[in-house]
Amino acid sequence: MLKLYNTLTRRLDEFTPMSHDRVTLYTCGPTVYDYLHVGNWAAYVYWDTLVRVLKFNGYEVERVMNITDVGHLVSDADDGEDKLEKGARRDGKTAWEIAEHYTEAFVRGMHEFGLVPPEHMVRATDFIPQQLALVRTLKEKGYTYQTSDGIYFDTSKFPRYADFAQLDLAAQKAGARVEANSEKRQPWDFALWKFTEPGKRRDMEWETPEDLLDSHGRETPGAASGVASAIMGFPGWHLECSTMAMELLGQTIDIHTGGIDHIPVHHTNEIAQSEAASGVQFARYWLHCNHLKIDGGKISKSLGNGYTMTHLKERGFTAMDLRMFILQSHYQSEGNFSFDILTAARNRLKNWRDTACLRHQVHDRLDDDTKRNDAPQYLSPQAAIGAMREALNNNLNTPEALSIIDESFSSISQRPLGAIYRAGLVELLQAIDDMLGLQLLDSTPDISDDAKQLLVERRRARDDKNWARSDELRDQLKAMGIIVRDTAHDTIWTYA
Ligand code: AMP
Ligand code: ZN
Hints:
Helices cover about 40% and strands about 15% of the residues.
């Protein structure tokens, strides 16, 4: 039984999808104005683990992940610049070019992290007509009003607005900034569609359809001269997620994921506008990952600690090292990034790969069925798979799953090679790769026939007590990236 912590109910809920074998899932994707930092990657690794665990439980998953390429403003209060337009000025490019560049970088990164590609990866700018249609539905149902700078959602018409995030709106009102958008009816009302500032052009802007505009809201430019020109505009950030989720997955989806920063504004607004439009529940399970911090503080480019994969690679780390680091913490706990902990994670992954290499060095024989069953003191691969799945089914407890693997691997690697059940080891490695995406099998191919030949020669040299020759062969193998180690029973190789 799979249990997930549901922000909607604030408890651990048993997961049962709407359809018995299929799960619809929406993940809030990145805003593509810069490279992702380690904290952003943590979010996507956790949701990838969720997808893997759902699949391991036999569900077919249909997932949408959006690419925010327009409308995410620097401030949550619907003012400030669009992050894309700001990034474009920083890089001396257009917002379209910025979006393309950082989307490509994200997709490359997803591949390096081994993230399961979502069935739908969709850009906000590809869903403009659909977003406008949602604004139209909300307008027709009386949920919108127009100000001089856009079309807003009137949260007073949606009485459950504060429930999801347990917002204290009275306190929020008292603390609202005086200079904030004074035309809003409530400080927490949010823009569905913003108008391009009069007299300005944006890289990304679309015509606001006539029927969405109030006659009184704002003067139609050029009206006085008799040649009315269109009012240009762009969608608010929250609108894209509601639109793409409902367009592609239906009005009610099973699971919606995001970061804890999304709870009070972004997801609260998604729920309000989606449910106001559809009249039915938007998402049944809401999962939120906590943030990764550095020395207890925020990760941010301006503080110089927004490490990207480029920074990590410069220091010799791979995406898989970071993936291991991320999985060592539970998605709901506040993670702490340091290069020391990342180094420890890399060592752990190296140890696991060493165990994975053992599968090439053992050969099952006919009596293996007894070998599998006769060792109750070992956590058998089958038992380890079951325990790992149980840990992950308990609200994605990855730290617990990792310690089960540590225990199982240490019992396997302490055995003489002849006492290792190869098929069981391979099954366990496959299950780890399926659920945790650590690519243990792919990263540990068998060594070449030449290397194997050298190992045979070295064994002969040792049998002949020709230690000089044996050391020479060891060095030769080392030059090929293969380390040999002699135990009481066997000679074992691993990758350097
Ligand atoms: P953004 O590109 O800013 O929209 O963020 C992309 C994702 O990263 C969102 O789901 C955020 O919740 C998440 N995120 C941002 N900062 C962190 C962090 N320090 N730790 C974990 N997740 C984060
Ligand atoms: Zn979203």
